[in-house]
Design brief:
The chain has 223 residues and is mainly β. Strands 6, 7, 8, 9, 10, 11 and 12 form a seven-stranded antiparallel sheet that branches. The chain has a five-stranded antiparallel sheet with strand order 1-2-3-4-5, with helices on one face. It has a five-stranded antiparallel sheet with strand order 13-14-17-16-15, with no helix packed on it. The longest helix has 8 residues. Strand 8 and strand 9 form a beta hairpin. The chain is globular and about 50 Å long.
Amino acid sequence: MYIPNTMPLTLAEMLDFLQPTVEDGLFDSVAYDDADSPTKIVCTQNGNTILDISSANNGHGWYFVPYISAGTAATGFGVNVLAYTARCKGGVYFRSTNTGGPNYYFTFIIAKTGSGKTGFIQFNSQMIAVGASLAPVLYSRCFGDDTSLSLYTYGYLVACNYTSATVADRTILTKLPVVGARGSTDAFSSVFVRSLFQFVNDGQQSIGGKTYGCIDMFAILDE
């Protein structure tokens, strides 16, 4: 697990940060769109561009644009100024600075799916009441997604039982679905939601005999 001391501010710094994801198998290539005059970073898998990353606000922010088909960008994604990022073997985590209101920020995650694809998750920190608990709305995007499905349009809630420490268990990991096509059973295989996450123990942790990078409510496989 690698957590940089400073956030990448330039395309060169972001490219350097993401290059190890090729060796980790998240992407087949991570490179500039134009070697001589780059405007963005292009990440590919199986011959397809699946993610573009470009700078915003004169180099002090970032746009993350996944693709769901050749030349078709996914909707509803984008992170601005970064406050925290971490790179694990199984994925990368980005979190924005506060974007308006107490504890309001955006998170963008890159991770592997069970079918071998690399997918993306984004959510904001605002929570929705679900019974006695609270849940964020997570949006999954992956190359090949059927955009007509409700899961693509509305996202999904992941309710963590963090309101009751007597029944919650920090070793319970919740699988997150991939939109895919109708009837798909694919899910993320290298990022999970921790059932109990009010204890802020960010960093590398062992859960069920495997090593994870744990940040906020997420556990990203790190082996």
